[in-house]
Amino acid sequence: MKKVSFAEFGGPEVLQLIDAEEPHAGPGQIRVAVRAAGVNPVDWRVREGQVLGAHPTRLPSGVGLDAAGVVDEVGAGVEGIEAGDHVFGEGVSTYAEFAVLTAWARMPGGLTFEEAAGYPSVVETALRIIGETGVRAGQTLLVSGASGGVGSAVLQIARDRGIPVIGTAGAANQDYLRSLGALATTYGDGWVERVRRLGRVDAALDLAGSGVIRELVELTGDPRKVVSIADLGAPQLGVLFSGVAGSVPDALAEAAALIARGKLHIPVEKSYTLADAAAAHADSQAGHTRGRRVIVI
After folding, report:
1. DSSP the chain
2. Which strand ranges, in their side-by-side order, compose the sheet holding 2-6?
3. Using CB atoms within 10 A of its CB, is residue 221 exposed (0-12), middle (13-18) or buried (19+)?
4. How far is it, in rounded angstroms, from Cα 210 to Cα 103?
5. Whole-angstrom Cα distance, residue 186 to residue 114?
6. Could you tell me if 66 and 38 are in contact, meaning their C-beta atoms sit under 8 angstroms apart?
7. Which one of 42, 122, 191, 202 is most buried, counting C-beta atoms within 10 A?
8. pLDDT, tens only, 159-203
9. Over the stretch 35-50, which tens digit does the pLDDT of each residue have?
């Protein structure tokens, strides 16, 4: 089978499309014929060799956590799913023609494989970090870097829970944030004062790692009300860096329910082939994403 792999840490150029042996489902796992794989910032952070406790890397390594596809192997002890079912979920080395998943759910009706691949990790992350801030209905959440996949999920989940959101993003994505129910403003010079003019901030999320932790603490008045998924230096300022996933099956079930109720939709901004994985990583690292990027097999 074809698979994207890297044998050394480095930039996007270390990614190679190789011929590899097919993986097989072990106990409690399923294997899917991958139709699409999500492109997440954690993918290129791992490729660079960043120290992420939840994702230890042994070289050579495959790439990718999220996938949507057709079940073709069911491991021992797995019930309620069978070959031919369409699922989305999380596993390992999903930039490949076949991948083993350790958490999954049936794809909600109406979703394409391309769309479904964009949900697993971002929804789990969004649910986790909203909870970690302690923000409640009626309190205002500030989201720095709000237009990407996680931000798109946060804005919609928060709206469903009655949590007003202020989102920062580039000028081109202001209308997109507003379409998801957020009060929107641009980042850059003067952004803190622009946020203050929009209202009180009770909790904040750093999704972009753009060096704004001090300002987020200033706006909330409490480092315990700030969570980052992108700035490894956040703990030095008393801010939680959230990098360890909670229950992915629970998150997938909630994602499916939100999608079914019409409360969650994350658009696919751009699709790539396996051979274009390096370009997908370069684009992801450049930021300014609106929604999700996915690899289509």
Report:
1. -EEEEESS--SGGG-EEEE-PPP---TT-EEEEEEEEEE-HHHHHHHHT---TTS---SSEE--SEEEEEEEEE-TT--S--TT-EEEEEEE--SBSEEEEEEEEEPPTT--HHHHTTSHHHHHHHHHHHHHHT--TTS-EEEES-SSHHHHHHHHHHHHTT--EEEEE-GGGHHHHHHTT-EEEE-STTHHHHHHHH---SEEEE-S-SS-HHHHHHHHS-GGGEEESS-TTGGGGTPEE--S---HHHHHHHHHHHHHTT-----EEEEE-GGGHHHHHHHHHH----SEEEEE-
2. 16-19, 2-6, 61-62
3. exposed
4. 31
5. 29
6. yes
7. 122
8. 999 999 999 999 999 999 999 999 999 999 999 999 999 999 999
9. 999 999 889 989 999 8
